[in-house]
């Protein structure tokens, strides 16, 4: 560390530097406004890769950075991954003060906790696009890009109802108790109302987790002697469901509908490797890629995004599966 | 206020509390489990079916085996918060190794055997590292294992690229009997669980090592003066737990044939809860393997009953588990 005799000079330098930095910071918004038109310094704040889906989010964000920086000379993308809401809020400050971003794409770790921090960023003149998990106050954002959770519940319901010919027993597995999961379940139930002969025997939480899904399915199999279709509501959970069915040697289940288009399931679908896997619904972490691309390209032109962009969740079948197969993605 | 309960827990030598005490101790969890079994049978007639009971016991095997190892660590006055992450990392490493060996064209059965051996070895090594850091490094077990909890899971996330590490199909077929096969109608994991528990009980109650573990947890200074090699005994408890985690993992991998960053999430708390519900004091000194086994089964019976019925709102599942844990612990306290 610093030798005592040389202390005064560095200390003064440090003071000066701090003062200069403070002055720069105060000027920053103004300076940004004067930046040459069409230069975009884009910050991306996303959750860290702790499970398959967020792993995919991180991968797709990096893909977007790679491709967009190659095609646009005056675009810079900075990606930050956070393990919790607090860390993400800190990163937002860093992005503004250290990276001097003028556009932000954020996948909020939590809706309520990140609303104020994002509001502050927007207050400093940064263009804000919020992805998937929304904020509790939408005035903190310029644009919102999300997957279609209603379709995520509706598409499988339609497919299952048709596949069963409007008659049969269905069980469902739910994710983690969140508004997003409620939206999907409500959409599923709304469709099923139109099919009085289809009985939804039960819907239990399996937390988007294979192990939990295995247990929940084992117990469904013990409880219900005749099940025609399973809405697993997620491809990770579908893996556990299939294993539990195989173990119990049950042949009554004709259809297992996962969701989100994980690459393993899409591959199974393409190859027709499992007769119970006939369709899937897209809810790809690729929407972070879309959000970054849309935001960057709009800002480069000085345009704004529409206030809400919904990336549709569509039915994946054997015919179009290859369009949803990304072998390099971790998800 | 009766004077006895104030200090007996910590200072009384384990022998003093054995005779009458431990038999009464066992009653809390057994009573709790019996009540749950009755409730389960009343709520759903399929609950008492052989298949369902085997399902419950098989899924208890992972946590149960880990809990047996955890029981030793807790009796000796330690704790291990990392077992869930450790299991996940071991599962990931074993799958990676087996896939690599499989590509070399080795016999699937040989690959599986090597993978299983690797799981045990890795568990022992992680346990050894914990033990050495705690004894030689003189860091609190809570801190050491809190550190490795993050380290293990982060490495798994890194190896899996945030996604899942999946076992090759041919290997998966060769490996699956380890989880799915049954001997005399009882699934393999249940047999392993029974064997581990029996061995654990034997070591704890019938060997010098077991008595040293209890002595250290009861009063470490006294044990030191009694010429017990405290450090060696402590390191061994962590190695033992590591091996148990390895064993649980080698049973776990063939179930779904994959490891992801959500594998083994919160297993550490389930294992610790099983030990504590089973009547072992968190501060160490005394405890029982039988209690631990009953505790582990009790915890999985609760979630099984909740899955088999739909009287209680699904939002309250975790609350029901919490209530049962507290009630059972309360029954224990009253009988001490």
TrEMBL record, chain A:
Protein keywords: Signal
Domain spans labelled Periplasmic binding protein: 47-296
Matches recorded under PROSITE patterns: TAT
InterPro entries: Peripla_BP_I, SBP_2_dom, TAT_signal
UniProt main location, coarse: other
Signal peptide annotation: 1-33
Alphabetical list of SUPFAM superfamilies matching this protein: Periplasmic binding protein-like I (SSF53822)
Subcellular location: Cell envelope
Presence of keyword Cell membrane: no
Pfam families the UniProt entry points to: Peripla_BP_4
Record Gene3D superfamilies: 3.40.50.2300
Entry's family note: Belongs to the bacterial solute-binding protein 2 family.
Name by which UniProt lists this protein: Substrate-binding domain-containing protein
Organism annotation: Aquincola tertiaricarbonis
């Amino acid at each position: 560390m610093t030798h005592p005799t040389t202390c005064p000079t560095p200390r003064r330098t440090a003071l000066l530097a701090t003062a200069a930095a403070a002055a720069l910071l105060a000027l920053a918004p103004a300076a940004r406004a004067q930046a040459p038109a069409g230069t975009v310094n884009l910050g991306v704040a996303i959750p860290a890769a702790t499970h398959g889906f967020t792993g995919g989010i991180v991968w797709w964000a990096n893909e977007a950075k790679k491709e967009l920086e190659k095609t646009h000379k005056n675009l810079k993308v900075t990606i930050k991954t956070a393990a919790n809401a607090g860390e993400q809020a800190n990163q937002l400050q860093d992005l503004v003060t250290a990276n001097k971003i003028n556009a932000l794409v954020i996948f909020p770790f939590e809706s309520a906790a990140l609303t104020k921090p994002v509001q502050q960023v927007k207050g400093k003149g940064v263009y804000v696009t919020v992805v998937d998990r929304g904020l509790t106050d939408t005035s903190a954002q310029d644009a919102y890009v999300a997957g279609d959770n209603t379709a995520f519940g509706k598409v499988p319901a339609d497919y299952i109802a048709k596949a069963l010919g409007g008659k049969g027993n269905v069980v469902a597995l739910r994710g983690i108790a969140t508004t997003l999961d409620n939206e999907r379940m409500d959409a599923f139930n709304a469709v099923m109302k139109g099919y009085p002969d289809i009985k939804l025997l039960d819907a239990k939480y399996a937390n988007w987790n294979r192990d939990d899904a295995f247990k929940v399915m084992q117990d469904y199999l013990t409880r219900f002697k005749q099940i025609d279709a399973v809405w697993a509501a997620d491809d990770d959970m579908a893996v556990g469901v299939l294993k539990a069915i195989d173990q119990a040697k049950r042949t009554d289940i004709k259809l297992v509908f996962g969701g989100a288009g994980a690459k393993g399931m899409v591959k199974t679908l393409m190859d027709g490797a499992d007769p119970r896997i006939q369709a899937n619904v897209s809810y790809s972490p690729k929407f972070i890629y879309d959000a970054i691309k849309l935001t960057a390209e709009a800002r480069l032109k000085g345009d704004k995004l529409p206030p809400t962009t919904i990336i549709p969740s569509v039915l994946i079948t054997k015919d179009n599966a290859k369009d949803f197969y990304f072998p390099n993605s971790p998800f | 206020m009766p004077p006895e309960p104030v200090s007996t827990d910590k200072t009384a030598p384990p022998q003093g509390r054995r005779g009458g005490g431990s038999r009464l101790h066992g009653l809390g969890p057994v009573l709790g489990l019996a009540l749950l079994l009755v409730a389960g049978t009343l709520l759903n007639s399929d609950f008492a079916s052989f298949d369902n009971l085997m399902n419950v016991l098989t899924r208890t095997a992972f946590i149960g085996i880990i809990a047996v190892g955890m029981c030793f660590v807790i009796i000796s006055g330690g704790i291990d918060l990392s077992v869930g992450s450790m299991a996940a990392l071991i599962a990931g490493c074993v799958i990676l190794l087996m896939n690599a060996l499989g590509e070399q064209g080795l016999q699937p059965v040989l690959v599986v055997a090597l993978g299983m051996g690797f799981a045990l070895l890795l568990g022992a090594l992680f346990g050894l590292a914990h033990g050495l850091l705690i004894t030689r490094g003189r860091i609190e077990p809570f801190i050491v294992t809190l550190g490795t909890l993050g380290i293990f899971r982060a490495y798994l996330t890194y190896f899996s690229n945030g996604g899942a590490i999946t076992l090759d199909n041919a290997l998966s077929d060769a490996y699956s009997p380890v989880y799915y096969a049954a001997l005399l109608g009882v699934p393999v994991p249940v047999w392993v669980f029974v064997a581990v528990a029996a061995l654990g009980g034997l070591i704890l109650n019938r060997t010098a090592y077991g008595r040293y573990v209890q002595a250290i947890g009861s009063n470490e200074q006294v044990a030191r003066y009694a010429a017990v090699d405290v450090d060696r005994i402590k390191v061994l408890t962590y190695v033992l737990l590591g091996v148990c985690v390895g064993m649980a993992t080698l049973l776990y991998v063939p179930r779904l044939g994959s490891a992801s960053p959500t594998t083994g999430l919160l297993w550490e708390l389930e294992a610790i809860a099983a030990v504590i519900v089973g009547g072992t004091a968190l501060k160490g000194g005394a405890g029982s393997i039988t209690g631990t086994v009953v505790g582990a089964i009790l915890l999985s019976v609760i979630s099984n009953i909740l899955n088999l019925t739909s009287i209680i709102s699904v939002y309250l599942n975790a609350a029901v588990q919490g209530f049962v844990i507290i009630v059972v612990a309360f029954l224990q306290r009253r009988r001490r």
